[in-house]
Amino acid sequence: MIQISDLHKKFGELHVLKGINEHITQGEVVVIIGPSGSGKSTLLRCLNLLEHPTSGEIVFEGITITDQRNDINKLREKMGMVFQQFNLFPHKTVLENITLAPINVKNIKKDEAEKIAFKLLDRIGLRDKANSYPNQLSGGQKQRIAIARALAMSPDVMLFDEPTSALDPEMVGEVLDVMKELAGDGMTMVVVTHEMGFAKEVGTRVLFMDEGKVVEKGSPEEIFCNPKNPRTKDFLAKVL
Ligand code: ADP
Ligand code: MG
């Protein structure tokens, strides 16, 4: 589904991604772990071209998206992204947040978009919040709405950048539960997280990044029970 070849990203002199090569197949839940500043967010942002790679190639569903001639907006419709800071529109209701892109970008009729939105709200257990504004919601509820908003575009892959890092501890579980359900439904997911429990339980593959490279990868068991690279061992010793 996504083929990443020799991907590099520089910010001026700072060489942040130093040759990433990965193949993500349909239905996989790829968990990316690694120390702060290792390039995890930059990699996710390159995948949907929020950052333009300095060199290398990304092919998504057969289309070379790093080729500037291709339509970035079409690509973004197919990749949902969820950030640490929920990024909901504060002056729009929950329902409007979820229906805005389907109506304006996909030209779906308002009542059809609302039908889809209510289905998603049912799925995350927040139908009763349809007419609330983001500042009337808890952090966990905001993040579940942000996930529903991304799903409203029927993406083929969901990218998550530390979706639970800004939450109070008691709200982490409800967001992870929504993500687990999504994974169970077969969604292709790329998840940057420090939630090692989630990585072990839901991840089909774990990538450990350090200093702009994937230095070790494998199944959750391989990475967590039998890490080989000293830098992976060192990192896990600090977080587990
Ligand atoms: P991680 O998500 O693993 O913590 P990031 O991808 O956010 O790491 O950042 C990797 C490095 O790139 C850091 O040194 C960070 O300061 C730098 N960086 C990220 N985004 C930018 C940017 N837009 N401009 C300049 N430097 C950046
Ligand atoms: Mg980050």
UniProtKB/TrEMBL annotation:
Membrane topology annotation: Peripheral membrane protein
Domain of life of the source: Bacteria
GO molecular function, a single term: ABC-type amino acid transporter activity
Any Pfam family matching the protein: ABC_tran
Chief subcellular location: membrane
Protein name: Polar amino acid transport system ATP-binding protein
Keywords: Amino-acid transport, ATP-binding, Cell membrane, Membrane, Nucleotide-binding, Transport
Localization annotation: Cell membrane
Gene Ontology annotations for the cellular component aspect, listed alphabetically: plasma membrane
ABC transporter domain boundaries: 2-236
Similarity remark: Belongs to the ABC transporter superfamily.
